[in-house]
Amino acid sequence: MSTSIFERRSVNYFDPEKPLRDELLREIIELASTAPSAFNLQPWEVIAVKSREAKERLHALANNQDKVLEAPVTLLIIGDRDGYKESNPVWKELEKAMGEGVHGAKQAAEFLYGSTDERRIKFAESNAGLLAMSIMYAATHFGVDSHPMSGIDFEGIKKSFNLGGSKEVVMAIALGYFDTRKQLWPKGYRKPYEELVQQA
Questions:
Q1: Of the chain's two ends, which shows fewer C-beta atoms within 10 Å, N or C?
Q2: 134 with 32: CB under 8 angstroms?
Q3: For 141-190, what is each residue's pLDDT tens digit?
């Protein structure tokens, strides 16, 4: 069994002198993209914030969290509220596998995810959330540290990074390497099974 699930930590301090290679970032994302999604529609995208100018813009929109400036890259995880629609090119790939059955799948997706604004938002956020956690575990697998952030200006980021229409910012994830000159807090308390699970 992989130990990545136990080794992952949310790192507050990143070493600003230690870059993350583009090839390694690609490996992390490609491994993470095996995450499940509704109808395998993968209604997500990722913006890799790497340039100094983009980092400074994001820093201001992320409550001035220094990790945005210190980490070599911060990923913006984007969910698409309209990702269930026929315009999603993944449907063409599904049609190759499902044949005529894809028409029923499209109708089901339209009902399940497109019938209300709330369902469209849930569709975007829940699927992008699956990708986000997969990215953090994939990063740990490759020896890269991470820290998710939801204390951010979602609308401000959407405007600053030209995300229009149905695209939603779900969270940001800083990626890089822990600054060993700093101290990592002890691993935090986790609810035991008895507190976490209710039987029904």
A1: C
A2: yes
A3: 999 999 999 999 999 999 999 998 999 999 999 999 999 999 988 888 99
- Alpha carbon distance 105, 78 (integer Å): 24
Residue 21 lies in a domain: yes
With CA atoms as reference, report the closest residue to 5 among 136, 129, 126, 131: 136
Measure the CA–CA gap between 174 and 136, rounded to whole angstroms.
10
Residue 74: inside a domain, yes or no? yes
- Tell me if 43 sits within 8 A of 37, measured CB to CB: yes
- CATH number of the domain enclosing 42: 3.40.109.10
Nearest-CA neighbor of 169 among 28, 66, 49?
Answer: 49
Residue 40 per-residue DSSP state: G
What is the number of domains present in the chain?
Answer: 1
Distance CA(4)–CA(8), nearest Å, equals 6
Residue 174 · residue 149 · CB < 8 Å = yes
d(CA 46, CA 73): 12
> What is the reported pTM?
0.94
Six-digit token string for 160: 């600053």
